[in-house]
Amino acid sequence: MARRAIYRALAPGPWFNSCSWERYVELYKGEILGPLNPRRVVDDLVSLVGEDIVLLCWEKPPKDCHRALVAEWLREAGFEVEEIPAEQPPKKVPKKPTWKNGTLW
Questions:
Q1: I want to staple 5 with a disulfide (CB 3.0 to 4.6 A). Which of 26, 36, 48, 100 is the partner?
Q2: Which residues, 6 or more positions from 2, have their beta carbon under 8 angstroms from its beta carbon?
Q3: What is the rounded CA–CA span in Å between residue 90 and residue 77?
Q4: What pTM did the predictor assign?
C-alpha cells in the first residue's frame, strides 16, 4: 500500500494566492527552494513514502503551480522527474469536503 505524507518544507509561503505568478516564482524559488538541498529533499521524501515519490497538485495541467517548480528544480539538480498525464478530467471537488456513502467528497 502506498504511503502518503505532507512535506511542509515544499509548501508555499504566506504570499500564496496573493501575488502575480512572476512574483510567486521569485518568492518560491528564493524563500522555499533556495535554502533547501535537492538531494536532502529526495532523501527525506524516500524516508517518508518509499522509493516511488509522487507529488500531487490541485491545479489543472498545465496551470502554474509549485509542484511544477519543484519538478523543474529537481530536474536541474540531475533527478529524473516524470510528468504523469491526467487520463481523465479531475472530479470537481466541493469547497468543503463532505462524507457521502462512506466516501470523502
A1: 48
A2: 49, 50, 52, 54
A3: 31
A4: 0.73
